[in-house]
Amino acid sequence: MRILVDTNVFVGACMGIGASRAVVETCLRGLHVPLMGAALLAEYEDVLGRDALFQGCRLNAQERSELLDIFLARCEWVRVYYTWRPNLRDEADNHLVELAIAGAADAIVTRNLRDLRAMELRFPQLRILTPEDQLQEK
Fold first, then answer.
1. Which residue of 33, 42, 44, 136 is most buried, as measured by CB atoms within 10 A?
2. Domains of the chain by start residue, with CATH
C-alpha cells in the first residue's frame, strides 16, 4: 500500500502515540511505501524543529532527526508536476492531496480528517484515513 503520512502522524510517532507509532513502524518495516515530496519534507523539518511541541517527548531532538532520516530512507520521492488545488479549508494542506495524487497513493494517513475530507475536488481512489483505520487495512 502506498501511503502519505501526514506530519501530525509522524509527530505522534515521535511522541510514542500507539497508532501513529505503528503506522510509521509499518513503513520502516517495508510493509507500506510512504511517499515524500519537497513541501511535505519542509513541513516535517519545520514541525520537528519546534522544541516546545516536544516537551516531555520520549525522543530528544537528535533522536527525532535520526528517526526522520531512517523514515526518509524508506520513502519514495515524488515530484509534483501538476497542482490540482483541491480547495481544502486550510490552503496549506492542499500540497498533501497533490502529492498523494502525483504518487498514486492509496491513502493519506492523518488526524486532520475534518479538513481533508472536506475537499471540493474529489479523487475517488484516494482515501483519507486515521492511523487506526489504516492499521485495520493491513
1. 44
2. 2-130 (3.40.50.1010)
